[in-house]
Amino acid sequence: MILVTTSLASAQKCASALEEATAEPTLVAATLSDAVAKLQAQEFSAVVFDQLLLDAQPDETEVVFKHLSGAVPVYLNFAVSSQDRVTRELRAALGRRNREVLVARREAEQALRHELNEKLTALMLSCEMALQVPGLPALAEIKMRAVDALAKEVAGKLGV
C-alpha cells in the first residue's frame, strides 16, 4: 500500500495514477497529522511526501518519520513534478527497497546457514565419538545412530 501526503487538490488524481502504475492500493493524506494516523493504522510500502508540506510543518515531520516503520519515503515537490516523474521516483524507490530486502534476506539466510552448519558439524562429530566408546549399551548406540542420521538429514537439506 502507498500513502501520498500532499494538500494539493490533484492529490486523488495522483494517487489513482500511482495505483494504476504500481498495482498497489494508494491512500491520500492531506496533512501530516492525517499521515501519522494512517501510518499507525496500516502498513505501507512507500510514503510519497510533498516537500512543500514537510517544509511548512517541520515539527510534524519528525512525528511522521517516527511512524514510517518499513515504508520507503519518497520526497517530491508536487508543484513542479509531473505525474510521470512522481511515478518514476516511486518505482525507483520501491525497486531500491526490494533490492535491499532481498540482500538482507540473503545475508540472514547465509548467517543462519553458517551457524547451523557449525552446530550440525559439532553434533555429528559428537555422535561419532560417542559411538566409538567401548562397551556402549546397545540402546544408547541405537539412539546415537538415530541422532547422527537426523543431523545428516538436516545437513543435507541445508546443502551442507
Structure description:
The chain is built from 6 helices and 4 strands; from the N terminus they run βαβαβααβαα. The chain has 160 residues and is of the alpha/beta class. It has 2 domains: 80 residues, Rossmann fold, CATH 3.40.50; 52 residues. The chain has a 4-stranded parallel beta sheet with strand order 2-1-3-4, with helices on both faces. The radius of gyration is 27 Å and the shape is rod-shaped.
Number of domains: 2
What is the residue-averaged pLDDT? 90
Query: What is the count of helical runs?
Result: 6
Strand order of the largest sheet: 2-1-3-4
CATH topology-level fold name of the largest domain: Rossmann fold
How many beta-strand segments?
4
Can you summarize this structure?
The chain has 160 residues and is an alpha/beta fold. It is built from 6 helices and 4 strands.
Based on the model shown, name its key terms.
160 residues; alpha/beta; Rossmann fold; 2 domains; four-stranded parallel beta sheet; 6 helices
SSE arrangement:
Blueprint lengths: L1 E4 L5 H12 L3 E4 L2 H10 L4 E5 H6 L1 H9 L5 E5 L6 H49 L6 H21 L2
Parallel strand pairs: 1-2, 1-3, 3-4
Helix pairs in contact: 1-5, 2-4, 5-6
